Amino acid sequence: MKLDGKVALITGAGTGIGTAIAKRFVADGARICITGRRQEMLDEVAQSLPVGAAVTCAGDVTKFEDAKRMVETALGFASKLDVLVNNAAIDPGGTTVVDIDPELWHRVLETNLTGPLYLMKASIPHMIKGGGGSIINIASLGGLRCLPGMPAYCSSKAGLIMLTQQVALDFGPSKIRCNAVCPGGTRTAMLEKSLGPLAEVLGTDLEGVFRCISSMVPLRRTANPSEITGICSYLASDDSTFMTGSVLLVDGGAAIVDVAGAALTNAGVKWGV
């Protein structure tokens, strides 16, 4: 119960990684406020948790008034805020900087980058009053490596990594820690929706698509959402009190793969032979 006594606010908690983090935090002793755009999904998550462990707040992270209301809901629920997890994000792709609709570009940046800024802006003053806090920004391997046809998503996640380090620098003296977690391919409903159209192109089913995208990953698979939660619980806990500004990969080793070597391997050629 290493999060016993902690109070956490988790955005995008109605599905995927956010839901998994919510369940892990409660299992580790925290009380939580979970947010998302769809109240019915938040209710479903809350009802799966012990009574009194969670409160919900439906809202849109791209609206500062909603971000403030999320923070106020967490404070009203437990009178303090120790941990903020910025997880809410969208990942539309399939375009380039030439073809992208400017409205889509702004929507991705507002959700994935401005949203976390709003939540941190609203949360940090309360964390400082409480003696400190831990902010965990869920970035992506896509913030460190480019994905084909996803300029908005990759740019937003790269920006979130830099924003994480800026907050770590500016608010370290106030005992605010801020770290970024960068998952690789993770089997969520959002990723399944994004990759679904590829099945027909590749002449396979969704399972075949996932085998394809993980074929060069050292662990040869995608992650389950629960596999992203351990590092988040660690960052939320007092075990990580001297850790801030870090960028942590949870990607099955994908970031260490050289694309030239991967192409040869995929072609059945052994490097150097």
Q: Averaged pLDDT, please?
A: 94
Note the quaternary state here: single chain
Spell out the CATH superfamily. Answer: NAD(P)-binding Rossmann-like Domain
Count of distinct strands: 7
Which percent range describes the beta-strand content?
5-15%
Tally of DSSP helical segments: 10
CA-based shape? globular
Overall domain count: 1
SSE string, helix = H, strand = E? EHEHEHEHEHEHHHHEH
What topology, given as strand order, has the largest sheet? Answer: 3-2-1-4-5-6-7
Low-confidence stretches: none
Report on the biggest sheet: 7 strands, parallel
Q: In words, what does this structure look like?
A:
This protein is of the alpha/beta class and 273 residues long. The chain has a single domain (7-186, 223-256), classed as NAD(P)-binding Rossmann-like Domain (Rossmann fold, 3-Layer(aba) Sandwich). It contains 10 helices and 7 strands. The radius of gyration is 19 Å and the shape is globular.
What labels describe this entry?
single chain; about 270 residues; alpha/beta; Rossmann fold; 7-stranded parallel beta sheet; about 45% helix
Give me a quick take on this structure.
44% of the residues lie in helices and 14% in strands.
